[in-house]
Structures are given as structure tokens and as C-alpha cells.
Amino acid sequence: MTHAFRYTNAQNKIFSVPYVNRSGEAISDISTLDIPQSAWVVILSSNLIRQLPFGAFSEQASNILQLDLSSNLIDSISDNAFSYTKQLKYLNLFGNKLTQISAHIFQGLDSLEQLWIGKNEIEMIDKGSFSNLKQLKRLKLDGNRIQILSENIFESGHYVDGFLQVHLQGNPVQCDCNMEWIQQADWLVLTHQASTICSGPPLYANKAWADVYDKELTCISGLQK
Fold first, then answer.
1. Strands 138-140 and 173-174, how do they pair?
2. Using one digit for the tens of pLDDT, what is the confidence trace for 145-202?
3. What is the pLDDT of residue 16?
4. 215 pLDDT exceeds 80?
5. Residue ranges covered by each domain of the chain
6. How far is CA 131 from CA 109, 112, 135, 154, in A?
7. Which is more confident, 28 or 9?
8. 10: which residues sit within 8 A by CB, 6+ positions away?
9. What sign for the dihedral angle of Cα 57, 135, 117, 153?
10. What's the rounded Cα separation, in Å, for the pair 90 and 144?
11. Residue 148: predicted pLDDT
12. What is the model's pTM?
């Protein structure tokens, strides 16, 4: 059953759109869901979903603008899992069990503006993982296990607003030469710099990114990537 959801568009006009709320229903198999084609907002938070297979959402779900999969048990997302949700603007995967982001997970999400993947267990992000997300405005990576944020996971400087906001606080960040590119990138804004705490190297351990931002970041020999 669809319900009315108050939605604000780019012109700050508020209007009602159809939505589906299946939060907290102990859903474990996403293939059993019957999402009406009319739905613009789909809320599947606080369930027992573990995997998102290829084409996880059928063509019938092609009109979805907002998809909330937060607080599930998702530890595996197949390449092209969102291939039928090309209109998606907001994707929330906060509070799951992901350990790695592979290069083709978000393939086809050319309209995506906000991606929330905080509070997972992410250690590795493959090269090019976010390079197709040209409309992306906000990327929340907070509360993971990321030590180094590499420039090659992005499409440098090709974001629609001219810059991308990235949330990295709550990660064991290594504030060394591998992160120096962030200081030089005019298309990326690292938010919450005062609460983004360096775990190393020893010179900057336990210091906030805001306190090392304008300093020369060096690497111990053999650790440069």
C-alpha cells in the first residue's frame, strides 16, 4: 500500500508523493517485495536484509527517488544491484555490515545526490567506486574503518555543483601523504574537520584534521600508495 509523503523539490516547493513504508517488519528476502510502480519513496529500514543481488529492485521500482535501507544486516551488494532504480536521488545504507565497496555497486545511479554509508565496517573502497555519480552532492562515510581515502575512487572535479561534501569522522584516518590530495582538491569539502581525528602517523595521532590541514603531510618510506 502506498501513502502520501511530503517531498521538497529543488525549488523548495512541498508536495505529496506516494511512498511505501515497510520498516521493522523482519523482512529478510528483498525479492519477495512487491513495490508499486507509483512509489517515489521506499523505506525498508530496521529489517533483516543481508544481501542485495543483481537487479535487486525490479523495473517496476524504476520511479523511486528515495530508498532507505538503513539498520539492516547488509554485508553483500552485487554489481549493478540498483540497475533498475536509475531515478534514485537519495540512498541510505547507514548502519549495515558492509566491509568493502566494489567498483560497480552503484553503476547506473547517475541521478544520485546523497549517499549515506556511514556506520558500516568499510575498510576498502575500490578504484572508481563513485566515479559515475556525477550528481553526487553529499557522501557520508562516517563511522567506518577507513584509513586512507584515495582520490582514484572519485571522478575528480566532475560534480554538478562543482564540489562534493564528504563526511569522514569516526574513521581511523591516517593523516599522511596519501591524504594530501584532499588539501589540494578544490572540488571536495571534508566536513566536520574538528571531529575527524587522525589515528596516525605518530606526529599527528589524536589530532583533528582541522589542525593538520595546512601542514605538509609526509609518509614513512614504503607506506606511500
1. unpaired
2. 999 999 999 976 566 666 899 999 999 999 999 999 998 888 899 999 999 999 999 9
3. 60
4. no
5. 1-97, 129-217
6. 11, 12, 10, 5
7. 28
8. none
9. positive
10. 20
11. 95
12. 0.89
Given a cut of 80, is residue 3 above it in pLDDT?
no
Alpha helices in the chain (DSSP H): 180-184, 209-212
Same fold, 1-97 and 129-217: yes
Where is 14: in which H helix or E strand? strand 14-21
Q: How far apart are CA 130 and CA 152, in angstroms?
A: 9
With b meaning 16 or more CB within 10 Å and e meaning fewer, what string describes 149-187?
A: beeebbbeeebeeeebbbbbbbbebbbbbbbbbbeebee
Q: Which fold has domain 129-217?
A: 3.80.10
Q: Quick one: fold of 1-97?
A: 3.80.10
Model pLDDT, residue 4: 46
Only one residue has cell 506516494, namely 18
What Rg, from alpha-carbon coordinates, does the chain have?
A: 18
CA-CA-CA-CA torsion for 123, 129, 131, 134, nearest 10 degrees?
-90
